Amino acid sequence: MASTPLRLLLIAGSARQGALSVKLRDAARHVAETAGALTDVLDLRALALPLYDGDLEAREGVPAGASLLRDAIAAHDAIMIVTPEYNGFPTPLVINAFDWLSRLKDGLAVTASKPVALLSTSPGALGGLRAMNYLRQYLQMAFQMLVLPAQQAVGRAHEAFAADGALADAKAASTLEGVVKAVLKEAALRR
Length: 191
Ligand SMILES: Cc1cc2nc3c(=O)[nH]c(=O)nc-3n(C[C@H](O)[C@H](O)[C@H](O)COP(=O)(O)O)c2cc1C
Known about the structure:
The chain is of the alpha/beta class. It is about 45% helix and about 20% strand. The chain is built from seven helices and five strands. It has a five-stranded parallel sheet with strand order 2-1-3-4-5, with helices on both faces. Helix 1 (about 20-35) links the parallel strand 1 and strand 2. It is globular. The structure holds flavin mononucleotide. Flavin mononucleotide (FMN) binds near residues 19, 21, 85, 87 and 122. The site of flavin mononucleotide (FMN) has 15 residues, from helix 1.
């Protein structure tokens, strides 16, 4: 790891309290901090971005929340996104925020070549794997992000966490550690 701590921004794609994706985000955050990274979480709901609307954009410009997302990405060496799965797809909260980001003049400048690791959660057996793979394609193709090969889908997530917030299963916890360390390593190489 580099001598100055790496900065990792963690984003969960849920719009509800008690979200499984927030639990996984926080477990990943703990792993990253243990590995020596400085971490921040970004609450996508707090950006208060309306559903993308071209008429609103023409009338009022891109909402301020998109600039907050841009600045948060720019201020970090690496990103982790935890997406839930809605009908096999990433949540509208994630897609809508990045769609607005893409409408900023300099929005794509901050995402290009930025290392990002993906995680997904679901109470189902596949753990949101389908959604995560769409998100991979979306971020690579449209945003030119460097999406790490390492990823993790946590299935049966409603029973996956121990009382301390860590993943209860030792193999799953070790996979999470591997994903976190992989994105930090990639970020360190790019400094
Ligand atoms: C509109 C909608 C669609 C869903 N589709 C899926 C799905 O395709 N696959 C799946 O595993 N779970 C699906 N679920 C269940 C979610 O995985 C579950 O609600 C989960 O807790 C949401 O993530 P969160 O806890 O981070 O909010 C769906 C839930 C909603 C509300």
